[in-house]
Write a structure and sequence with these properties.
One of its GO terms (biological process) is alpha-amino acid biosynthetic process. InterPro entries: NAD(P)-bd_dom_sf, Semialdehyde_DH_NAD-bd, Semialdhyde_DH_dimer_dom. By secondary structure, the protein is of the alpha/beta class. The protein has ten helices and 13 strands. The chain folds into two domains: 133 residues, NAD(P)-binding Rossmann-like Domain (Rossmann fold, 3-Layer(aba) Sandwich); 199 residues, Dihydrodipicolinate Reductase, domain 2. It is 32% helix and 22% strand. The chain binds 3-amino-D-alanine. The site of 3-amino-D-alanine has 8 residues, from helix 5.
């Protein structure tokens, strides 16, 4: 049985990690949990209540795998130190190491071979991880020239605090709605830039000098890196993203337009997507079947559908829609799949 540690165990991703380890029957003893302070307990189904210890490098020394569900600053300070004392690998969920040349950025169904022998492995940004499940098979079958992504991102992307702010904001927002649909009275926001109930906010992470947000640039850089290109180089597909927060709880949705190298009939694309691991095709417009956050929430697979020939790019263009659970494919599930590859 492997020995596993979870750092940041009391956060939204940390808690999901325990559930995924259990559901996938990951062969490990009760995971050791670490947080910024000890004295807390986290409930787990299989292992019962687990105590959370204050983190120390000595505390994780000799474990097979350590999952980091902590901040980027934490990863910058400790990831290398932890990697030096674990037997197999550290899987980091933060953005701190993703573009480091010596750290593979992995979605196991796409580039899982990079896990073997790597001491430090980065989990992609959730938005990228969900999109790449559909983009990678299209890239392999038809090549990709251009990718334009518009996101509809759930509150869970901002962690447990984001989910709490959305839930707690709904009743006060309802009380502010007048009969004519306008609002009176102020709603407040702390986690998000603006109140999320009954709103969409085209602002996730910090604005950059080029007018994009950091979240949007992560999609550009990380998609290129996972597909095997220099994340900031000119080779490989051009990728542009507009990232928008919407009032859903934990599944991100993304409208994706691609221009491919080779002609890509929509029917052929659907065949490719049907065969791709980790994807469930939901594409039957006649039966109102398409991806939605409501059905993607809690599921391991990413849903893909609304696949159609793009009327701008013609035979070399497609439009599609994906939905994936942000906490699972975008974080905990991907991290556990990475560990499984690294240990195999
Ligand atoms: C978000 N992608 O949705 C970010 C979280 N990693 O806010």
């Amino acid at each position: 049985m492997h020995r596993v540690g979870v750092v940041g165990a009391t956060g939204a991703v940390g808690r999901e990690l325990l559930g995924v380890l259990e559901k996938r029957e990951f062969p490990c003893e009760a995971p050791l949990l670490f947080g910024s302070k000890g004295g807390q307990t986290v409930e787990s189904g299989k292992w019962g209540p687990l105590d959370v210890s204050p983190f120390s490098v000595e505390g994780v020394s000799g474990l097979d795998v350590v999952f980091l569900a902590a901040s980027g600053d934490f990863a910058k300070e400790y990831a290398d130190k932890i990697a030096a004392v674990v037997k197999t690998c550290v899987v980091d969920n933060s953005s701190a190491l993703r573009l480091r040349d010596d750290v593979p950025l992995v979605v196991p169904e796409v580039n899982g071979h990079l896990c073997k022998g790597a001491k430090l492995i980065a989990n992609p940004n959730c938005t990228t991880a969900i999109a790449i499940m559909a983009l990678a098979p299209i890239f392999a079958a038809f090549g990709l020239r251009k990718v334009v992504v518009s996101t509809y991102q759930a509150a869970s992307g901002a962690g447990a605090a984001g989910m709490r702010e959305l839930r707690d904001g709904i009743t006060p927002a309802l009380q502010n709605i007048k009969d004519d649909g306008c609002f009176e009275g102020a709603s407040t926001a702390e986690v998000f830039a603006h109140p999320l109930p009954f709103n969409v906010v085209p602002h996730i992470d910090k604005f950059q000098a080029n007018g994009y947000t950091k979240e949007e640039m992560k999609v550009t850089w990380e998609t290129k890196k996972i597909l095997g290109f220099d994340p900031k180089g000119d080779d490989g597909p051009k990728v542009s993203c507009t990232a928008v927060r919407i009032p859903t709880l934990r599944a991100h949705s993304e409208a994706i337009t691609v221009e491919t190298e080779k002609p890509c009939p929509a029917a052929a694309c659907l065949d490719v997507l049907s065969d791709a691991p980790g994807l469930t095709v939901k594409d039957d417009p006649g039966d109102n079947l398409y991806p939605m956050p409501l059905t993607a929430t809690g599921a391991f697979d990413v849903e893909v559908g609304r696949v159609r020939q793009n009327i701008v790019f013609g035979e070399n263009g497609l439009d599609l829609f994906v939905c994936g659970d942000q906490l699972l494919r975008g974080a905990a599930l991907n991290a556990v799949l990475i560990a499984e590859k690294a240990l195999s």
